[in-house]
Amino acid sequence: MSEPHKETPEELDRANERPVDEAAPTGGAKLDEPNPSPVRGEEVLLEVDHVTLRFGGVVALNDVSFSLRKGEIFGLIGPNGAGKTTCFNAMTGVYRPTSGAIRFQGESVVGKKKHEITRGGIARTFQNVRLFPEMTALENVMVGADAHHKTSVISALFRLPRFWSEEKSGRARSIELLKFVGIVHRAGDVSRNLSYGEQRRLEIARALATNPTLLCLDEPAAGFNPAEKEELLQLIRKIRDTGVTVLLIEHDMRLVMGVTDRIVVLEFGKKIAEGTPAEVRDNPAVIAAYLGVPTDAA
Amino acid sequence: MTTTTEKATWRSSGGVRGWFGRQPGWVRGIIVLVSAILAFLLPYAAEVPLIGPQIVTEGIDWPSALFNMSYYVLLALGLNVVVGYAGLLDLGYVGFFAVGAYGTALLTSPDSVLYADTGWKWLMAVPVALALTMVAGLILGWPTLRLRGDYLAIVTLGFAEIIRIFATSTTTLRGDRGFASIPHPPGMWNGKPIFGVTDAVPYFWLGLVVIILVILGVRNLDRSRVGRSWLAIREDEEAAEIMGVRTIKYKLWAFAIGAFIGGLGGVLFAGEQGFINSQTFVLQFSILVLAGVVMGGSGNMAGAILGGALISYIPDRLRGISLGDTDLYEYRFALFGLVIIIIMVLRPQGLIPSRRRAMELKDREKEVAPQ
């Protein structure tokens, strides 16, 4: 109940078993090449402080703490049901932590409305794509761009100057973003007609349109083939290079290892490891969590 | 590149709408203008040879039937904002129509307790009555913000019944006795009042002017941040809020604007009829308007207009037609139901579907028969 995960263990295995050579098309960086962020600083952007979240008797998050630094690509990984998406939902105001604090740029987000958190600078995508299916790709992105607009019902009704200027700039920016994620040729199509990969990209464009400081991607590579994963990696790096901090939830270890600067590993709602990809990869607790070896044997 | 993108981004679809969308601005302007002029000439449809006599109603004076159509169209346009755009299923829409009509009656009818203090003319009562309906929209909207779908439908159903029962049992609102002598809209022509008792043509024209203003207003809202927010709420409310849409605010606006348009229908109705009582605002009315919106094409103004006109026209057209010994008017709702069933079976997306619904159903066609 607590975790709306849909993937079966088989899918996870398949994703992890894929040989890495298959992945990288020419020109792109290899998936497991470490890639430190050039713009990464030490300034803390988001702080998850001893967060516990219970649903009745189920403890979805148990005293989890970590912090994100500005400009980095941060990975949140763990097996199915570890509490990754729950953690996301707590950050974006969907769930309220039972105890603990979440601070974004020094300000608590707990108890804030979802749209306030978005306007405050946290944008997200969804594990199961949640676009507005009957709206065009461009309209989807413009909804995101509208987050910072001030056009009122009155100025829209009477077509006051603010309407024209915001509509024009919002539209131009949305088209730019569609170009950025590479689906501008689908701008006029209703989003339900887009391919799965295009829909995932559109979700990212829509989230970017809200002008976030922190972009949270919930398993953006789910269901992607290796070539698509490689393109996604490049897109994530491109986003990071524009100065946006990225928080990535992912199952695919290779993808996470290849792109993130730091990683936190969750298992059964608890943090079991934190560190650079290399540190996390060699951590016995992490290996045990992923391979199912009992911790005492590892 | 940019120009093709810009053009493609708004409405791209096939059929008549697609053809219309591809025409240059001036062609579209002329088509719209000609349709508007033709609409104004509708009272004289009987003069058209051959077709005319088939169109006009027999059992009811044709201009009166046209006026009936005009306020049904208004109601359909208003309900379309609530149901079609924002996706809030409202089964109590007649409540707003009633508030508009009662607001006018209370302020202007000699039967009203307020008459001694106000005794206003129709035109003075209009803004007050409309403000009242918007407040009624907020009163309905506020407690129902957390509700969706079926639950919302039940609450709104209750809302309309509360208004009707309140009107029936409150002495101030006079129940069945109703309010008489509600003044007509103002204006003189050749020494006679424009809006008289016998001729319904001016009322139809007034209704038409109001409809055109409403169309322009709703269109402006639809093609803006407001319309996008409504659609986003309809499609996925939580995702919309996470994308920064103030869902509460826009849902309340949808209710308020829907109520405002319904109230417009109410004040026009009161101004034409001169008399209203609690029997006018039965539940059936809400269902009928909703049927019109769905039949015409929910989420699309042209569809709502056509649907609204049809739900008024079909029963009126059946008046005075006899089949053997029975008057078809007796069976108007049975026949009407049959017509709706046939239309919904043949065209589930509505007569003039919204661009989005049409695409969705076209998709399904492909699923059935891949090319």
Automatic annotation (TrEMBL), chain B:
Keyword annotations of the record: Cell membrane, Membrane, Transmembrane, Transmembrane helix
Protein name according to UniProt: Branched-chain amino acid ABC transporter permease
Sequence intervals crossing the membrane: 26-46, 66-86, 93-110, 122-142, 149-167, 200-218, 252-271, 283-313, 333-352
UniProt entry tagged with the keyword Metal-binding: no
Pfam families named among the record's database cross-references: BPD_transp_2
Keyword Transmembrane helix: yes
Signal sequence region: none
Organism of provenance: Paractinoplanes bogorensis
Membrane topology qualifier: Multi-pass membrane protein
Subcellular location: Cell membrane
